[in-house]
Amino acid sequence: MANRSDGTGAGGPLAGMRAVSIAVNLPGPAAAQILAHEGMEVVKIEGPGGDLLADAAPGWYAELSAGIDVRRLDLRTGDGFAALRALLAGADLLLSSQRRGGLARLGITSNALAAINPRLCWVEIVGDTDAPDVPGHDLTYQFEAGLLAPPTMPRTLLADLAGAREAAFAAVALLLGRAAGGAARHRAVGLRQAAQGFDAPLRFGVTVGDGFLSGSLPGYRMYRLRDGWAAVAALEPHFAARFAAAVGDAPETFFASASAAEIEALARTHDLPIEARRD
Length: 279
What we know:
Radius of gyration: 23 Å
Order of helices and strands: EHEHHEHEHHEHHEHHEEHHHE
CATH superfamily of the largest domain: Crotonobetainyl-coa:carnitine coa-transferase, domain 1
Helix content: 40-55%
CATH architecture of the largest domain: 3-Layer(aba) Sandwich
Largest sheet: 6 strands, parallel
């Protein structure tokens, strides 16, 4: 998450609002950090065992927890749930990421939340809005959307991070609607649907087969270098002409004999959209 040197945070546009998050792992905390970055006060509730992300990626957990009031409560006990109710009574937003059946067993439903605080907005992060109690994970949602090339594992958690941004957007939409007198207080965000939102380049053949962003064009692909790789994105006609003039008719041979430093210099000299990376 970006730092707050741009002046957002405590003085951001969401200052004066409070969110309570019972969402752990990644999508919920990432959404909460986006909202905190824009000035919202966030209280995060973790169970007695804490958040799995703290063990799996402690540095990332620390980054997503920056500026967040983290508390430990056992919501399965009367005292723990009473403490949550007290927080929700004065909050503007609830973030959750548990399965719907589990939340209902805790007593968290739209009707129950309305009884606690009729102004409370609820963003419910689920795996799949069509089947919110069916288990899944970022890997399965990316796989189903066709975004993976087995057996290569994904380099990023696209469904989780996209879902986090959609959850933050949903929160702001609900709060704006409330300010305008709207009655909506709940919105579900699905990680499966978040992954599917990125499948258009595949469905329309842009990045696969002979699609124009598939690597079939010499000016839009990756090349092996002596000491690394180069990503070339000379797509527009003026860039394509400049690229052809700079590297000649055998770009693979040209790049194979060049170093990353030489390609970086070539990109600067000819004003070309090329990034080089050493192994």
